[in-house]
Amino acid sequence: MAIARIYTDDVAARKHLERLLWPDGPICPHCGVVNEATLLRGKSTRPGVYKCRPCEKSCSVTVRTVFEDSKVPLHKWVYASHLLTSSKKGISSHQLMRTLGVSYKTAWFMSHRIREAMKPLAPIPMGGELPCLTPMIDEGIATNGKMSSDWRIELSGSEGAYLDILVSYFEALKQDEQRSLEMGRR
């Protein structure tokens, strides 16, 4: 199996990232202007550096990404992100070390940085954002306590033990059920 060129060549990896992140042209990370940057060329400039005309700051495709300020070659970053995102059960830092040919410390750093970037910005509430996706307890029965109007969840694994939970969803469900019964009577 041949490895794609983006995993073995820095220039190809940079161009690949530019196609993915900048489909409409370079986007300045400082001012947000699209397609107003010029590619800098010369002996003193590293490849892939652009200069934004409106704000006159230099930038590249790696600015404000996990690849920024790293001494690891860009093609190894791209390959590591491919390996981490395409493996079903994840990949260990030791396997990443062997595959990329880097030290364990570097592989650990890369994998943690990529995993941190994949975390959602705002945590999603347990069960989802919709009220119908509430968390469920395995082998539990939602019952209405005989002595009070609070909803309880009876755990079948513990003998007669009740876990008192005031869940707003159950209250809303109870009210909706009462409303639907009243609507049916009318």
Question: What do you see in this structure?
Answer:
Strands 1-2-3 form a three-stranded antiparallel beta sheet, with no helix packed on it. Strands 4-5-6 form a three-stranded antiparallel beta sheet, with no helix packed on it. β4 and β5 (151-155) form a beta hairpin. It contains five helices and six strands. The radius of gyration is 27 Å and the shape is flat. It has a domain at 140-185. Residues 144-153 and 155-169 have low confidence and may be disordered. It starts with 9 loop residues before the first helix and ends with a helix. α1 (10-21) crosses α2 (74-86), α2 (74-86) crosses α4 (104-118) and α3 packs across α4 (104-118). The chain is 35% helix and 11% strand. By secondary structure, it is an alpha+beta fold.
The helix-and-strand class reads alpha+beta
Biggest sheet, in brief? 3 strands, antiparallel
**Low-confidence runs (pLDDT<50, min 5 residues)?**
144-153, 155-169
Order of helices and strands: HEEEHHHEEEH
Q: What percentage of the residues does DSSP assign to strands (E)?
A: 5-15%
Rg over alpha carbons: 27 Å
Placed side by side, the strands forming the largest sheet appear as: 1-2-3
The DSSP helix count reads 5
Give the integer mean of the pLDDT values: 76
Helix fraction, binned, reads 25-40%
**What is the overall silhouette?**
flat
Distance between the termini: 71 Å
Strand tally: 6
